[in-house]
Write a structure and sequence with these properties.
By secondary structure, the protein is of the alpha/beta class. The chain folds into three domains: 201 residues, FAD/NAD(P)-binding domain, CATH 3.50.50.60; 110 residues, FAD/NAD(P)-binding domain (3-Layer(bba) Sandwich); 107 residues, Enolase-like, domain 1 (2-Layer Sandwich). Strands 1, 2, 3, 4, 5, 6 and 17 form a seven-stranded mixed β-sheet that branches. Helix 1 runs parallel beside helix 8 and helix 3 runs parallel beside helix 6. It is globular, with a radius of gyration of 24 Å.
């Protein structure tokens, strides 16, 4: 049978654009459908604009810190509208760049919704289109808790388009999005409350990092409410009232749900072709990114495996190479570095202390210090660094950092850890002085031994 396309990509986010562009570069006839905006969540309502907001919040602190270094500076009022306008201009530029990448590669673009008719046929903006192979790359969307009054709260998508900075905000959750926006709003001057069920934020991260972040958020002005959950939200005279599980109530201007994301599958008509999904809606795939239907694949956040933009783009690239480039390969989800752009930021790669201990004996090395800058600025801010080492092989199993420049530092360490570096390799490396990064190669005293 002759198909309209060799390959059709549903979704123009990071995963879909990379996949479509590389496949087209290999000579495939490619179509890509995107109904909202090119670049997906990360470029438009995720990591990129969020980091601009983090930077804006940090500039306010930097102006205060500069006084300790002799600058006669004063922190004035923040212009929220100017920040949002500047952010929108840059996001518009990036949005166009993603579209041009596909066009220049020779892919055909459809600015329309796509859904399945059968395993090789799609409804794309009411146009019937056929393809030999199809990949689902539709990403995810933020969710709210199922409690009375949930509709009174915003989600992360909304936060990038607020007409004004709220004076008072309650953020519900303690994952990446929650702690990042807590730092943003507090840094820009809003009274910020963080409500979460866990004893510390960032479940799944190393416990030392979690505890360090909780302290850092509190020092940054965030009011912490651990161990409680919201049970209802009401509104009176424009003010929201958040009732918590301990019986207390917080009155606020705005409630922000940062309580997770769900795969975008509801309007794909997957039942028409029998694509299997998990109870969460996530598309189930094997290690080749294939679904249970032979010609249909899925990549990125819609699979709900490791929801990080670089993972999504890596999967898209690998799939295109495997299907059309004559270079079959897989993407490993082990030792994937990640960063949380809290204030200060976190970055990590490899196993946490608890994960390593569950596998066998591990040597733990930690350091906790005031960054050089803040010995003069006077700001109460600490840096935490941690190495997790296999006690039998001396290999570095994990590296974790909370502190300024953590993402930039851990990115380099990730290469060493994936390459199999040992603690002896770190010890033999000469540090760059004076830097925070040198601490990772001067950790000589073991903090503890775990997992015996």
């Amino acid at each position: 049978m002759a198909y309209d396309f060799d390959f059709f990509v549903i979704g123009g986010g990071s995963a879909g654009v990379r996949c479509g562009r590389i496949a087209a570069g290999h000579g495939a006839r490619v179509g890509v459908a995107e109904e909202r905006f090119w670049g997906g969540t990360c470029v438009n309502i995720g990591c990129v604009p969020k980091k601009f907001m983090v930077m804006a919040a940090e500039y306010g602190a930097s102006m205060q810190d500069a006084r300790g270094f002799g600058w006669d500076s004063a922190k004035g009022a923040h212009d929220w509208a100017k920040l949002i306008a500047a952010k929108d201009t840059e996001i518009g530029r990036l949005n166009g760049t993603y579209r041009r990448l596909l066009n220049n590669a020779g892919a055909q673009i459809f600015e329309a919704h796509a859904s399945f008719i059968d395993a090789h046929t799609l409804d794309v903006g009411r146009q019937r289109i056929t393809a030999d192979k199809i990949v689902i790359a539709t990403g995810g969307h933020p969710t709210r808790l199922d409690i009375p009054g949930a509709a009174l709260g915003i989600v992360s998508d909304d936060a990038f388009y607020l007409p004004a900075l709220p004076r008072h905000i309650v953020i519900i959750g303690s994952g990446y999005i929650a702690v990042e926006f807590a730092g943003i709003f507090a840094g820009l001057g809003a009274e910020t409350h963080l409500v979460f069920r866990q004893p510390a934020p960032l479940r799944g991260f190393d416990e030392d990092i979690r505890a360090g972040l909780a302290d850092a958020l509190a020092q940054g002005g965030v009011h912490m409410h651990p161990g409680v959950a919201p049970v209802a939200i009401t509104e009176d005279a424009g003010r929201k009232h958040v009732t918590l599980s301990d019986g207390s109530t917080i009155e606020t201007d705005m409630v922000f749900f940062a309580t997770g994301r769900a795969p975008n599958v509801g309007s794909l008509n997957l039942a028409a072709v029998g694509v299997q999904t998990a109870p969460s809606g996530a598309v189930i795939i094997d290690d080749t990114l294939a679904t249970n239907i032979p010609n249909i694949y899925a990549i990125g956040d819609v699979t709900d495996r490791l929801n990080l933009t670089p993972v999504a783009t890596a999967e898209g690239h690998a799939l295109a190479d495997s299907l059309f480039g004559g270079k079959p390969r897989k993407v490993s989800l082990e030792n994937v570095p990640t960063a949380v752009f809290s204030i200060p930021p976190i970055a990590t790669v490899g196993l946490s202390e608890a994960q390593a201990a569950a596998r066998g004996p591990a040597r733990i090395f930690t350091t906790h210090f005031t960054p050089m800058r803040h010995n003069i600025s006077g700001r109460s801010r600490k840096t935490l660094m941690k190495l997790v080492v296999d006690a039998k092989t001396d290999r570095i199993l994990g590296a974790h950092m909370l502190g300024e420049d953590a993402p930039e530092i851990i990115q380099g360490l990730a290469i060493a850890i994936i390459a199999g570096a040992t603690k002896a390799d770190f010890d033999q490396t000469i540090g760059i002085h004076p830097t925070a990064a040198e601490e990772f190669v001067t950790l000589r005293t073991q903090t503890r031994l775990v997992g015996e």
